[in-house]
């Protein structure tokens, strides 16, 4: 066995191990490795660097963490060297938004927190003596090319020398033309020949030290291949030349090679017959661009883009003046450093800066710009354009500001909250008047592009959680979609960008932002604005568990009363947010009933004891708390604190000296009015029988005394009108009924004689309350009240002027019209038209007025006007919506789930279209369910529609034309659905033909135009507005149907000729006169059957082949 081969053994056998150990010690072998034990090294204490002194920034906690840790603000003070806080290990927490909402940019990295580990410590050394650097003693060698007493650099390449020489020659004025040199090779040889031996050695050493051996070998190989030429010992003689003149030299003519590759020359040579396409070739060469195209490119940048990149702002958000000098203005290294201020483009770029303080400053500037633009948009065109840029989708300002809210630095968060609030919120307007009739309702506008949010199930929530864990990022297309939605509906766009989870994080108990009272107030106002978007948004806030922190921050963790300045008091915005959430969802309102005990102190404490700086805020808190109580009572929730408020409410009604006290009195009267409705039917309340009739009626004398106050008159009149509507049910004393009647009549007469009534007039709410009151007295049935009933009926007849001036304005005017017409037995035709128009408006105002619309239409379209079999065409109302609307008008909250009902922004249909709607339903038979279920045939429906229109009023001229065209196309439309059997064209029916002739005689006498017909076409049907079908396509179908089935029908031909003579557009006339030239011989229409035409028009038609008889 070789001595270098290690013997094999069984490692698990102890005997083999022991044998190996004995052989090692006995033979004295040298060990392969040694273990040397030393003492523990003394740790070196290093001075912490500046970035290391900052507090470490932990990751943002996840939303699922019940106790998230909020990142702390950087401490500007330097901690001690042995600070134990530096040794604390921070547990990583999950961020609810791992990818900040920064569009088309990478996630920012805080480099300042990393430089300390790269650069190390900066240490200063004490220097005892400073010695100047010494120069190397020169050897006894000849200096090379000194100039002006300074030697040239030792290592200087020949290329740089020639470059400097050429630059120097360019700067000098040429007196004589440059000499023609023999070539670079001769010049180099001459210079080498003039160099000394030492200079050659130094140059050779420089080359050897600079270049690699491979490069030197390549140069030597090229030197051997260079043909040897004799070097002239003396330079050639110079040829004398005359000095040139000072005039600029002529341009050098282009050579043949340049002409060969010139684009214009190539176009003329190879593509002479091909026409120019300047818009496609202009980017290659400016010569291809035509003059109009150049002007178009100059104006191509939109006004918004010019404002975005040209208008400059200072740090206060004001527009900078252009004449500010450089040494005075706010200048920086931007795109145009000679101009002061920042553009919006530069501010949006700096919004993504790496420096937190810079981001905070930019966000503050943007907030000031938005606030100034909203304030001065009506005064200055520039600010209107700036606001259009900030709210448009092109530059996505909403996305930038939403992204800034994901920052982890407190100072940036404060600025981001202010900037986003400036964009979303409007200036605080007037106080909400919930004491008005149905004032507790909110009617948000739901845009066509906006879709209600659906409640998320467990699967959707789990998917979102997984996306957060995997840090799924959004694409650029997602951001573009959000920006487009924000332009139409900003609150819903922000919610789509996950704003609610982020706000919940900022409202958490450990959030540093909670210390900033101003930011918390803005967050509450932001949430209120979002909640006003609709019921679905309020339910999303409930799912995000935002109500508990709002109550905690805005009510519980505060001081009361407001006796000092500097303390944290209950928030008006927080209470208003709770009111809005209660309006949005009944379930939320039910959960707030138990929390009303925390707000009791706000109602029981007199705001007059507050300090002067906080007195108005104390009144506002009382008012908002009363509004919240008002909404809960409208649902039927009777809060236990009502019994405690009896004495304070009586004091409020007695003291109405200031405007704030009068506003509080109106809110209290509105609450008492709702309690009257609840006490009249004890089954409306939760719990039942929670309120008695005598409780709200105990304030009747105090409210009668308030009728003298003009600002409280409407609220008092509303309470008295509600009380009067239940007189027959509870039968109060005759003296009380008489006292109330006289008080109202006297004060109403006094109000009419006031100068304010003559100048301003009545408000629609005043008219409604007065009509409600006198109609309640006019319907009294008890014998002892008949005297008052007659007087009330006389007042109702005299109130026609009130109603006439109010019914077209708003809901109050329309409801007043319904009440007034319901008690009038004889009305003229003008009021029937008013009923119909008002009913149409109510029909398009959403669920809220559905019941009112049905009653108005039933009053107008009685059985004498509309046949019973035709009523399904005019009363297509949803039963559930009718019940909800009726409950809202009667203050019955049992079947109501929300007080937010969106109103549509669609174009309203007019009365003429409504009356002719059965014809439109037959034309759209494949879409109209009513037309499919009606038992009458199509001819009968058309005839009865014409008769209904004749009985009501004259249909609009353009709408009549569109309806007649649909009548001729009814059979063609039926054939478009395979499952429907197509009848013969109804215009052949004798009765229909007779009505058509009568309507054509009236219609074809008046002139019209294409714009009027297109507008009537859009208004004629909701199906047309949904599909955006153009009128030209409808006209094509009309002409094609005539050519296929008319057989020269005179009425059909007359309407077609009328349209051709009135629509002076090439496409329309070319369709008839050229494409359907064969039908011209069948159009036998006389000159007297169409509006009068001049000779020129007749000649044009005759040239096309259409000859009128």
Q: Which quaternary structure do these chains form?
A: single chain
Within the largest sheet, what's the order of strands? 1-2
Class per helix and strand makeup: mainly alpha
Strand share of the residues?
under 5%
Largest sheet: number of strands, sense, barrel closure:
2 strands, antiparallel
Give the integer mean of the pLDDT values: 78
Overall 3D geometry? Answer: extended
Low-confidence stretches: 1-7, 44-122, 141-148, 173-182, 226-256, 973-982
Number of helices: 55
Rounded to the nearest angstrom, the radius of gyration is: 45 Å
Distance between the termini: 133 Å
* Helical content band: 40-55%
Number of strands: 4
Could you give a quick summary of the protein structure above?
It is found in: Nucleus. This protein has 1109 residues and is an all-alpha fold. Among the domains are: 262-298, no CATH class; 303-424, no CATH class; 728-825, no CATH class; 829-904, no CATH class; 907-1104, no CATH class.
Can you describe this structure?
Belongs to the RPAP1 family. Its main location: nucleus. This is RNA polymerase II-associated protein 1 C-terminal domain-containing protein. This protein is mainly alpha-helical. Among the domains are: 262-298, no CATH class; 303-424, no CATH class; 728-825, no CATH class; 829-904, no CATH class; 907-1104, no CATH class. Helices cover 52% and strands 1% of the residues. It contains 55 helices and 4 strands. Residues 1-7, 44-122, 141-148, 173-182, 226-256 and 973-982 have low confidence and may be disordered.
